[in-house]
Amino acid sequence: MLKKAMIGAVMLGAAQLAVVAPAAAEAKDVSWFLHPTEVEPGGELYAETKAAMGGCGPATPVTSPGFSAPLQWTIGGNWGKAAGYGKAGKTPGKYTATFTCSDGTKTSRAFTIIGTPPTTTTKPPTSTKPPKPTKSTTTKPKAPQVAVKPTGAPQTGGGAFGPMAWDW
Q1: What pTM, to 2 d.p., does this model score?
Q2: 39, 34, 28: which is closest to 92 by C-alpha?
Q3: CA atoms within 13 A on the CB side of 73
Q4: Mind giving me the DSSP string for 12-70?
Q5: Taking the mean position of all CA atoms in its chain, how far away is CA 119?
Q6: pLDDT tens readout for residues 43-69
Q7: Distance CA 130, CA 148 (A)
Q8: Dihedral angle of Cα 127, 129, 130, 134, to the nearest 10 degrees
Q9: What's the pLDDT at 25?
Q10: 158 three-state secondary structure
Q11: How far, in Å, are 31, 35, 139 from residue 109 at the CA level?
Q12: Could you say which DSSP state residue 108 is in?
């Protein structure tokens, strides 16, 4: 009886794993970060993942419409670390950065380029007339100030400290 109960428990556990395992593989979120999450236009971004700590080995660079160029993984290290620096684009807005792991998993993080996004583009004036010169008020340069030359003997003090060595 005990043997049948053990076999039943093992079978039930295996059936549950068969159902849960594919769902967990699809919902896997890779551990990595993109810093900062709010950046100035043209600012620097840093991405890092560690394969041995819930991350993955990246198969592609990090890409985003908000990057000026793809972020390359140029730094390695312990725990399967992969990291790199990149530059944000110039247009403010909310963006998503994405890369693919070596096991085929795609992962992404959101970031924002701060500022006010352009709403409309304004055309420069199409006038062919040169701008009118502005009247400038010309002021006469002032004559240089003449220094007042001192007259008389220099004032060296009243001798309050007594005779000096050279006065003897």
Answers
A1: 0.54
A2: 39
A3: 22
A4: HHHHHHHHHHHHHHHT----EEEE-SEE-TT-EEEEEEEGGGT---BSS-BB-TTBSSP
A5: 24
A6: 999 999 999 889 999 999 999 999 999
A7: 51
A8: -100
A9: 43
A10: coil
A11: 10, 10, 62
A12: E
